[in-house]
Design goal:
186 residues; single chain
Length: 186
């Protein structure tokens, strides 16, 4: 192989990489706004599902948990405050679990919604199941502890997915409710 052949191969590779980079940049520029709009729409739908009685759900502010920006909202019906919704993240087995938590004015959990995660399919993704999410209804901050035994007073761990269960209950939901409690009392 001559020097000329090496230069020719190198130039061909550089051209291929440049063309590939341009194609990737064009696809990203085209799809990024669509992905953003869909994410915002998905969040709005989840907010309405969490507080179906609310006439309006307004953004109150932003907070940072696990170095991620999250938002919190106030829900009103007939101009009366009926509750709050806070976005929070919990450190799971293989991802941060993006969670929305709806609470009443006494900061008791009404419902939760899992917006996103990358937990193990068949185990960790059970956090999305209705039976798991329903355990949170009516719980105050002292009853968000995860137990591996049968319980109605606390949160029962999902068999084989205790880390994911704790990430939602003891990390995302507890930290979110604690933040709301602290912020609303200031």
């Amino acid at each position: 192989m001559t020097i000329r052949d090496i230069i020719k191969i190198t130039l061909n590779l550089v051209i291929v990489y440049i063309i590939g980079g341009i194609i990737l940049a064009a696809v990203y520029a085209r799809t990024s706004p669509i992905i953003y709009r869909n994410t915002v729409k998905e969040k709005e739908t989840a907010l309405k599902k969490l507080m179906p009685r609310a006439d309006s759900i307004q953004r109150m502010g932003e907070w940072i948990t696990h170095e991620k920006h999250a938002e919190y909202f106030i829900a009103k019906k007939d101009k009366q405050i009926i509750g709050y919704i806070i976005e929070s993240f919990g450190k799971g087995y293989s991802s941060y679990i993006d969670t929305l938590i709806a609470v009443d004015t006494d900061l008791r959990v009404l419902n939760i919604s899992i917006l996103g995660h990358a937990e193990t399919p068949g185990l960790g993704d059970e956090i999305e199941s209705e039976s798991f999410r329903n355990q949170f209804a009516g719980k105050d901050i002292e009853h968000l502890k995860v137990l591996k035994t049968d319980t109605k007073d606390y949160i029962q761990a999902i068999s084989g997915a205790t880390i994911s269960t704790r990430a939602v209950a003891e990390d995302a939901v507890t930290n979110g409710v604690n933040f709301l409690k602290k912020t609303l009392n200031e």
